[in-house]
Every structure is written in structure tokens, then in C-alpha cells.
Amino acid sequence: MLLNFKSEKSYQSTNEIIKKHNIVSNSSTTNELLEDEINFNEWKLEIPKINLVANISEGTSKEILNNYIGHFEETKKDIGNIGLAAHNRGYQVNYFEKLKDLKEGDYIYYTYKETKRTYVIISRLIIKDTEWSNLENTEDNRLTLITCVENKPKLRRCVQAIEVK
């Protein structure tokens, strides 16, 4: 039986997932699949100023970005520099459509597993599409949001925020 957990609705507990899919819970593969389900349902980005609440998925492929905010696989997921990407126009889902409206001092909320962190925007940049240094790991906890720049295929909009303690 092929399980596509990312297309399933949220469940209240691991036991409900096991029951729904008739899974034997002591399998290591099953535990990995359940971990994926839990991560997916508890992995999201919220930006109140632009009314954004969206799930995050691993990767930045066309398929991922057509449905979710994508996570740059080379970056951290919990602490350090967390890199995220999304479309801003021209697609069915354009989560970063209003990223250009954000200002320094605006808040972003990032949830991974059971931890929700608050970040404040510190910079808004236009970078070349080949500029990857903004995604390098940092000593502080930071979010780096990247999307295209309208009508400028070789440029990217980059918003960075640091965690507020």
C-alpha cells in the first residue's frame, strides 16, 4: 500500500494515523512515515501583516512550490538559518505574492514540530539569482525568504528575519 501522507488531512494523534492506514506501529519505515506526517502538519509559516498562513514542505521543486512554501534542503529546519522559497505570481499558489509589502520590524511566526518561534524582519534585499550566501548557516536563528522579482528573471527578493527571544 502506497501512502501519500502529504495529501492527507491533519490528524489529532499518531494513533489516528495508524488506525486510518491500518499500519503496524513497530515498523521502522512506518515510524519514518509517521514522523513525516507529524512534521508536515506542524511545519508552517505565518506572516500576519500580509495575511499569510501556509504549510511548508521539503524541497524547492516546481511540484513543491506549486502547492507549498518550499524549504531549501541545504538549510536548517529548527535553529540557525532556515531558507524558504515560494512563488509570488503567475501560479495557482503564490504564497510570497505580498513579500514586497513587508518592512523591517514586521513579525513572522515559524512553526516546526511543536515549537513556534517569533522572528522580526531585519533586511529586505534584491539579489542575483546566483547569490546563495544569504542561505549560509548563521550563529543566530534566522529566516531567509526568497522569491522572484517581477519581470526580472535574474533577480530574487530576499527577506531576512531574526528570532526575537
Short description:
By secondary structure, the chain is an alpha+beta fold. The chain has helices at 14-21, 28-41, 62-65; strands at 43-47, 52-58, 69-71, 81-85, 107-112, 115-128, 142-149, 152-163.
How would you characterize this protein structure?
This protein folds into 2 domains: 31 residues; 121 residues, Sortase (Sortase, Chain: A), CATH 2.40.260. Helices cover 16% and strands 36% of the residues. β5 and β6 form a beta hairpin. The N and C termini lie far apart (44 Å). The N terminus is likely disordered.
List keywords for this structure.
165 residues, alpha+beta, Sortase, Chain: A, 2 domains, 8-stranded mixed β-barrel, 3 helices, disordered N terminus
SSE blueprint:
Blueprint: H1 14-21, H2 28-41, E1 43-47, E2 52-58, H3 62-65, E3 69-71, E4 81-85, E5 107-112, E6 115-128, E7 142-149, E8 152-163
Parallel strand pairs: 2-3, 4-7
Antiparallel strand pairs: 1-2, 1-5, 3-4, 5-6, 6-8, 7-8
Q: Helix count, per DSSP?
A: 3
- Please indicate the count of domains: 2
| Largest sheet properties | 8 strands, mixed, barrel
Low-confidence stretches: 1-39
Q: Please report the total strand number as a whole number.
A: 8
Mean pLDDT, nearest integer? 82
Helix content: 10-25%
Structural class: alpha+beta
Q: Given this structure, which CATH class of the largest domain is correct?
A: Mainly Beta
The dominant shape is: globular
Named at the architecture level, the CATH assignment of the largest domain is: Beta Barrel
**What is the CATH topology descriptor of the largest domain?**
Sortase, Chain: A
